UniProtKB/TrEMBL annotation:
InterPro entries: Calcineurin-like_PHP_lpxH, Metallo-depent_PP-like, UPF0046_metallophosphoest
Name recorded for this polypeptide: Metallophosphoesterase family protein
Pfam families noted in UniProt: Metallophos_2 (PF12850)
Family: Belongs to the metallophosphoesterase superfamily. YfcE family.
Origin superkingdom: Bacteria
PANTHER family: CALCINEURIN-LIKE PHOSPHOESTERASE DOMAIN-CONTAINING PROTEIN, METALLOPHOSPHOESTERASE
Originating organism: Tropicimonas omnivorans
Calcineurin-like phosphoesterase domain ranges (all copies): 1-172
Length: 196
């Protein structure tokens, strides 16, 4: 299966056009959140990405809510759930984890406890689509250090998906690492390819 994955387009319609063009070769498209910016522009981005919806699985970022994303796309949207595509099980969880400091626009965040509860029922998955990175992998902000989620790291250790994709931490776009046998990849808005 040829997989195109991305995160954090943040209203960049030029980036969306590049994803549409690249996705002609994809069997599956994964979007790891932050399609909007501060809850603005989500409809325009989902309209731009509509040609990909039938083969896409998305999670919300912290710049849009779960409800808003589900209301603006026909793509599969996961949050503490799984779906199956071509025999491959995909699990997903969106939002900023752990919560960001209070922002005037209201970041859509989950506590570590909420993330742990949301993923508790997922026993196995081949792919895990997250918005936030796990603690210790592709999660470093310059001047602040490692800011990833302990709950997400624990879930990866337990589930051991073959592939984990995330975004959220812009300083780490393009970085990857492993947790056990799981490949963890912080994406960014450019097309990133995987074979599974």
């Amino acid at each position: 299966m040829r997989i195109l994955a991305f995160s954090d387009v943040h209203r960049d319609l030029e980036a969306c056009a590049g994803l549409i063009e690249a996705a002609e070769e994809a069997d599956l498209v994964l979007g790891a959140g932050d399609f909007a910016t501060s809850h603005e522009g989500l409809t325009e981005v989902m309209d731009a990405l509509a040609p990909l919806a039938a083969k896409s699985v998305f999670v919300p970022g912290n710049n849009e809510s779960l409800t808003a994303l589900r209301d603006t796309t026909t793509a599969t949207v996961l949050h503490g759930e799984t779906c199956t595509r071509n025999g491959v099980t995909i699990a997903g969880l969106g939002g900023g984890i752990p919560p960001l400091p209070p922002l005037p626009w209201g970041s859509w965040d989950l506590t570590e406890e909420e993330a742990e509860t949301a993923l508790a029922g997922i026993g196995s998955a081949d792919i895990l689509v997250l918005h936030s990175p796990p603690k210790g992998v592709a999660d470093v902000i310059d001047g602040k250090g490692s800011v990833g989620s302990v709950a997400l790291r624990d879930a990866i250790e337990r589930i051991q998906p073959r592939l984990v994709v995330c975004g959220h931490i812009h300083d780490c776009w393009g970085r990857s690492g492993t947790i056990g046998t799981s490949s963890v990849n912080n994406l960014g808005p450019a097309p990133t390819w995987f074979e599974l």
